[in-house]
Amino acid sequence: MDDLQNYKLQLQQVEAALTTDPNNEELIKLKIDLEEVIELTHDLIKSQQQEKRQANGMDAKDPILLAVLANKWKVGDQCMAPWSEDGKYYEATIDAISEDGVVNVTFNEYKNTDVTMLSQLKSVAKRPASDWADQKSKKMQAAAVAGSDPNKQREYLKKKKQRKLQRFKELEEERELEKNKWLAFTNKSSKKGVIKKSIFATPENVNGRVGIGTCGVSGREMTKFSNGEKWRRGA
C-alpha cells in the first residue's frame, strides 16, 4: 500500500512538472509509465486480497455455519458469486457443492467457471434485466477463452498474474532509465552553460537528495522510488 501511495505522489509531481514543460518527452513517458504502474499495482492488490479471502474461507469451516448454508443453497441455484480475477460479484449458477463448503459456479454472462466458498455467495438482487448489462466485464470476456475447465481457468489466471508482474518489473526499469537520462541531460547542459532545471536536479541543501520528489525545489528530500519488491514476492 505504501508503494501505491508513492506512485500516486510521483504521478502528481510529474503532472506538476508538465504544467511548466508540457512538451517534455521524458516527463510525458514517465507519466504514462506511472499511470500503468498504478493500474498494475491496483490489480495486484486486488488479486492478493482475493487470495487471502479465499484462504480464510477455506480455514473457517464451522460445521454449524456450513449446515445452515448447505440448506440455503443447492445445485442449480442462481446466486451472486465473486470472480477470483477481480473480486467483484457477478450472477452465476451453482454447479456443485462439496461437504467442506467449496462451491463450483459458472458465471452466466460468459460461461466462465470458478471456485468459491458457500459463505461468499449472495442472493441475486431483484432489479431490471437491463441493469445486468452493466455487469459485463472485459476481463471476464477475455478469460472465457480459457474454457469451462477449472484447471485451465486457474492456469489462465496464474499466467495473467505472471505477465502483470513481468510488466511491473519492466516499467520500474524504464523509470530508472528515464531518471538517468534526466541526470545526463542536466550535466551536459551545465557544461555548455545552459541552465535547465530538472525534477532530478541536485539541491544546494546538503540534506537534499536527487529525485523526482524534489520537483526542482532545492533542499526538499526526494520522494523515494519504490522498488515494488513485495509485489514481486507475490508471484
Taking the sheet with the most strands, its summary is: 4 strands, antiparallel
Strand content: 5-15%
* Number of helical segments with 4 or more residues: 6
Can you list the strand order of the major beta sheet?
Answer: 1-2-3-4
Oligomer: single chain
Coiled coil: 154-181
Subcellular location: Nucleus speckle; Nucleus, Cajal body
Organism: Harpegnathos saltator
Function: Involved in spliceosome assembly.
Question: What's the quick description here?
Answer:
This protein has 235 residues and is of the alpha+beta class. The chain has helices at residues 2-20, 25-59, 63-72, 138-143, 150-191, 229-233, and strands at residues 78-82, 89-97, 102-107, 113-117. Among the domains are: 1-56, no CATH class; 73-123, SH3 type barrels.
Helix and strand layout, with pairings?
Elements: H1 2-20, H2 25-59, H3 63-72, E1 78-82, E2 89-97, E3 102-107, E4 113-117, H4 138-143, H5 150-191, H6 229-233
Antiparallel strand pairs: 1-2, 2-3, 3-4
Report on the structure:
The chain has 235 residues and is α+β, with helices and mostly antiparallel strands. Helices cover 50% and strands 11% of the residues. The chain has helices at residues 2-20, 25-59, 63-72, 138-143, 150-191, 229-233; strands at residues 78-82, 89-97, 102-107, 113-117. The chain has a four-stranded antiparallel beta sheet. Residues 128-135, 194-198 and 205-222 have low confidence and may be disordered.
